[in-house]
Amino acid sequence: MSVASTLAAHSCFKTLDPEACRILDRQCAWLKISAGVWIVDQSANDRDVYFIMSGHLRAVQNSARQDLIFNDMMEGSIFGELSAFDGAPRALSVFAVTDSLVAKMPPSVFVETMFSHRPLCEAVVSTLIDRLRVMSRRVGELGALNVRTRVHAELLRLARPDHNDPKRAIIVTPPNQSELAARINTRRETVSREINAMERGGLIERRRGAIVITDALRLSAAIEAASSG
């Protein structure tokens, strides 16, 4: 088994005894998922838990009108733990954005391991807290912000500081307009209009493969003002 195909390479299990890790490895199904392939179907009744060993996966809520992107998950992430606990159907679908390797663990094994291995328990609690905070923020934005401000907020959330200019922030490999619309529950045409308006107003600059936010502090303050207004 290669290094990538053992739970010892996952952050949740780095302190686990090697022999215990090998036993868990044998209890997991190891799945190589090609980009674009769905791995979990919304409303499915399976209860397995997934550990991302490599790659990039995305959780979405499917609907007849438009899929809503909930979050992106990278190497070291886990998902599926809620169904392992309560036995309820999946709330979200998950697909691979890039070629990925995941370990699928049976629910009984996951629950037993979580309560006997503190780092895994801490990782699960941290994951749930992070998701709750993100969900609370997004629900607040959908209820309080107009579409223009939601576009601004999502771009700022995707950006990283420009180390050469503290005022600026950069989105490397930005999402396309359809994806951005799916993140904030609106239409692609609306996103296109707002992006063009931001560019005309000097709020952003579009470069090959990147978007530069010209004054991230000012944009952040405007979003905060709109949120509390």
Number of strand segments: 12
Fraction of residues in H or I helices: 40-55%
Ranges where pLDDT stays below 50 over 5 or more residues in a row are none
Tell me about the largest β-sheet.
4 strands, antiparallel
N-to-C SSE string, H for helix and E for strand: HEEEEEEHEEHHHEEHHEEH
Distance between the termini: 56 Å
Strands ordered across the widest β-sheet? 1-8-3-6
Describe the global form: elongated
Structural class: alpha+beta
Kindly report the average pLDDT value: 91
The radius of gyration computed from the alpha-carbon positions, rounded to a whole number of angstroms, is: 20 Å
Beta content = 25-35%
How many helices does DSSP assign? 8
Can you give a write-up of this model?
The protein is α+β, with helices and mostly antiparallel strands and 229 residues long. It is built from 8 helices and 12 strands. It has helices at 18-27, 81-86, 107-116, 118-144, 147-158, 177-184, 188-200, 216-228; strands at residues 29-33, 38-40, 49-54, 56-61, 68-74, 78-79, 93-96, 100-105, 160-162, 165-172, 204-207, 210-213. α5 (147-158) packs across α6 (177-184), α5 packs across α8 (216-228) and α6 packs across α7. The chain is elongated, with a radius of gyration of 20 Å. The protein starts with 17 loop residues before the first helix and ends with a helix.
